[in-house]
User: Fold this.
Amino acid sequence: MHIWVDADACPKVIKEILYRVAEKKKIPMTLVANKPLWAPISPYIRTQLVGSGADVADQEIVRQMQAGELVITADIPLAADVIAGGGHALNPRGEFYTEDNIRERLAVRNFMDDLRNNGIETGGPSALGQKDRQAFANRLDQFLAKHR
Assistant:
């Protein structure tokens, strides 16, 4: 098992949960980003800096990820690629993207993107709350218990 983190947009509080889990359960984890990141010194945690540009980190995660591994991301196109590659995708709110829900999520994402491109304000996601953090931690724990 390996955990991959789309780290550029991953909330700090979620990274902190992941740091604790990687260390406690001795699971290798790689945070991939196109800007330098801080991570605790650990034999289980590493950061990987990739070049700048749209989707460069996403492409690197998909390139290195193996079937059955876990990717933490809120990026729906990346989640679709992860699922297509046999991986698992969990967002920071504790929701798994699946073969059953990814097409709908992509359609909604593309629709909202079209609205924004046409000048319509759509707003962003609500702030990550305690309930979201707890849901993430619970789903991560359940997943690791099942897949280790």
